[in-house]
């Protein structure tokens, strides 16, 4: 059995750690490139959303390298993601690419259900070994999140363009190489220090932007036109409403671990959107409110084109904008998204927030 | 006597390249409206050459670029500020029409809606994947009906009652128009119907959930079309202002931004001079084959010397240039230190 999996941000490093701990052979898909996307676009239904297309591209490229089994997450609820693994299996079958699919769906009631599904994968490994492996992989996940958060925070302060991204890429590489929990911690601390000791503009008071929206387009930089990097280079401090460890814990581990969840976020969305609409629709609303309350200057909502939960959230956003005085820019991405147009919008948004802030500061000084 | 400084604003868009000179009070002294025709570099140089006939290098106090080819233009000209079209349009409109709250802008291939509050952009939207309702489409339809684009607007004003045309998609709009023609509707009514359909499309696409308040300004090439103006007035129920220089507002805005930037930075411009109009500037591009991303790297050379490179995702080529530049700079420093 040679296991592969879809890319989603830094998830590959985490899944690799899990599989390695369990002595399962794996073949990670090559990094997402234009070829990945065009393979996906070629074989996916045209109206399906971007994540499906990118997943199919990943699987096809991994199959070329000899993978025979796919490990991916499933879902329940109104979002289409829930049946993507079935659709993908059919598409791959039609293409004559036979990949065995192991789907990790969120357990309905109890973590035991997830463990049962994992059993198909783990074979003769003991439960204890499996729990240990999950814990080890999760530690990597948290370390990567810490590094990513730091990078998005300080990128706007770098004096030499590209410094932060270079150190961040080194850090991901180093985390990938670690073999013990202790090493993970040391590695994370080492690179956090390294990032902070880069030549930075510490005087800068940048605008702060929160990114909310659909999980895949939030987490996978190649799907959102490297939004965090671009915003950082335009001079904005960036935070994201969902990070990988939070999603894994909430979605797969049923909130078993003591990681910040989104229960409260969903509760904040209640006055505007009281029921679950699938995906991260409620979280997008709630997180926008949270960012406004934390004094952020603006929010960007991102989702794949035709994403139903985000469309629902988008139609509610004008009310949130008005009630909490926070500008929201909605960006949908798909394979047609031109980089120049996206950059123009981001630049205009950053400009708008900067001028607004300058005016507020000036009128504050007068008053 | 030393002449007052002028500020150059350049807006290089898909359809037109506009060059504007403003004085320090923001009055437009010179406005050039050139067709880009897919050759931004040559068009910029053509514009510069025209200006060079009447102005000197030392009269230029600052340069700003905007439009989809703003980076390219900035490298060639030595711009002091490079800004997106939305900011540029907003800056120009709020200078020329004080107190403006809403800007409708329709250009060759894109349309924008910008809302302002207290002179600052508070919200904006831009058409995304669809060019229905932009200048190019009107151009096309005018050509199909064999009337000039100027006449087009006037025809619409003469209409008795505008027919209803599907404006959601330019392909469907065209077939709908043909259908209405075959049915025997008058040309005036069809043209007016088209204007209304485009306005409806604009407001549905860009204005959804937004409150459009007066004063409203309409700019961009399409603002010259009286039919479109009338349709907007009908739909919004407000009078619509069309600034005198509505065609070149982006360039005016970037000139104003250049003035602001240069003044804040201490008064020195990076303008390379009008002689750039005669320099041999070459733009190259190639596909980098080092990974399956196959990025198209763009390279600008001036007289055989590398000016800039961009387009690569990983930053390898961009960085290679930065490294070469800083090495050259430190060498120059060493040399002056040696003397």
UniProtKB/TrEMBL annotation, chain A:
Domain of life: Bacteria
InterPro entries: Dehydratase_Activator_Redct, FldB/FldC_alpha/beta
Name the UniProt record assigns to this protein: CoA protein activase
Organism of provenance: Heliobacterium mobile
Automatic annotation (TrEMBL), chain B:
Keyword line: Iron, Iron-sulfur, Metal-binding
GO molecular function: iron-sulfur cluster binding; metal ion binding
Superkingdom in the source lineage: Bacteria
Cofactor (UniProt): [4Fe-4S] cluster
A family per Pfam: BcrAD_BadFG
Positions of the ATPase BadF/BadG/BcrA/BcrD type domain: 8-258
Record protein name field: 2-hydroxyglutaryl-CoA dehydratase
């Amino acid at each position: 059995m040679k296991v592969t999996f879809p890319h989603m941000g830094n998830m590959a490093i985490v899944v690799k750690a899990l599989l390695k701990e369990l002595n399962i052979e794996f073949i990670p898909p090559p990094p997402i490139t234009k070829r990945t996307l065009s393979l996906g676009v070629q074989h996916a239904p045209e109206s399906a959303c971007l994540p499906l297309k990118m997943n199919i591209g990943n699987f096809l490229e991994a199959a070329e390298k000899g993978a025979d089994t796919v490990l991916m997450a499933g879902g329940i609820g109104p979002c289409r993601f829930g049946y993507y693994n079935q659709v993908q299996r059919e598409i791959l079958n039609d293409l004559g690419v036979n990949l065995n699919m192991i789907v990790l769906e969120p357990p309905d009631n109890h973590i035991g259900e997830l463990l049962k599904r994992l059993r198909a994968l783990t074979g003769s490994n003991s439960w204890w070994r499996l729990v240990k492996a999950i814990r080890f992989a999760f530690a990597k996940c948290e370390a990567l999140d810490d590094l990513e958060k730091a990078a998005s925070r300080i990128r706007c302060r770098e004096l030499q363009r590209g410094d932060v991204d270079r150190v961040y890429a080194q850090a991901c590489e180093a985390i990938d190489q670690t073999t013990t929990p202790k090493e993970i911690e040391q590695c994370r601390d080492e690179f956090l220090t390294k990032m902070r000791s880069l030549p930075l503009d510490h005087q800068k008071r940048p605008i702060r932007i929160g990114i909310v929206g659909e999980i895949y387009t939030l987490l996978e930089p190649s799907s959102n036109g490297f939004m965090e990097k671009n915003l950082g280079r335009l001079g904005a401090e960036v935070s994201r409403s969902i990070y990988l460890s939070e999603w894994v814990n909430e979605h797969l581990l049923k909130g078993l671990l003591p990681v910040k969840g989104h229960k409260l976020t969903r509760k904040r969305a209640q006055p505007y959107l009281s029921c679950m609409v699938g995906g991260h629709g409620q979280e997008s609303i709630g997180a926008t409110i949270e960012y406004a309350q934390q004094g952020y200057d603006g929010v960007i909502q991102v989702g794949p084109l035709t994403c139903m939960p985000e469309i629902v959230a988008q139609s509610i956003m004008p009310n949130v904008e008005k009630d909490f005085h926070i500008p929201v820019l909605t960006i949908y991405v798909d394979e047609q998204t031109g980089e120049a147009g996206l950059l123009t919008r981001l630049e205009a948004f950053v400009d708008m927030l900067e001028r607004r802030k300058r005016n507020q500061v000036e009128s504050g000084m007068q008053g | 006597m030393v002449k007052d400084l002028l500020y150059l604003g350049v807006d290089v868009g898909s359809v037109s390249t506009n060059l504007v000179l403003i004085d320090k009070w923001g009055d437009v002294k010179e406005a050039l409206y050139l067709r880009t025709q897919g050759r931004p570099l040559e068009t910029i140089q053509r514009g510069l050459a025209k200006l060079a006939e009447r102005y000197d290098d030392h009269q230029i106090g600052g340069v700003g670029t905007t439009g989809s080819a703003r980076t390219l233009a900035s490298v060639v000209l030595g711009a002091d500020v490079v800004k997106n079209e939305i900011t540029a349009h907003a800056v120009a409109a709020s200078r020329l029409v004080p107190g403006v709250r809403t800007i409708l802008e329709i250009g060759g291939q894109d349309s924008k809606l910008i809302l302002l509050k207290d002179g600052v952009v508070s919200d904006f939207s831009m058409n995304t994947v669809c060019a229905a309702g932009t200048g190019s489409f009107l151009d096309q339809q005018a050509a199909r009906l064999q009337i000039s684009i100027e006449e087009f607007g006037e025809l619409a004003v003469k209409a008795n009652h505008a027919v209803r045309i599907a404006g959601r998609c330019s392909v469907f709009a065209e077939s709908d128009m043909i259908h209405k023609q075959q049915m025997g509707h008058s040309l005036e009514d069809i043209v007016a119907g088209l204007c209304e359909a485009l306005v409806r499309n604009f407001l549905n696409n860009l204005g959804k959930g937004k409150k459009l308040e007066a004063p409203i300004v309409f700019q961009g090439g399409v603002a010259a079309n009286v039919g479109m103006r009338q349709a907007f007035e009908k739909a919004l129920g407000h009078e619509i202002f069309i600034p005198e220089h509505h065609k070149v507002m982006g360039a005016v805005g970037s000139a104003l931004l250049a003035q602001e930037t240069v003044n804040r930075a201490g008064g020195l411009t990076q303008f390379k001079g009008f002689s750039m109009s005669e320099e041999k500037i070459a733009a190259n591009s190639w596909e980098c084959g080092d990974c399956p991303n196959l990025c198209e790297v763009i390279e600008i050379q001036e007289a055989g010397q590398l000016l800039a490179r961009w387009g690569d995702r990983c930053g390898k080529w961009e960085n290679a240039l930065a490294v070469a530049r800083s090495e050259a700079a430190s060498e120059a420093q060493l040399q002056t230190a040696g003397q």
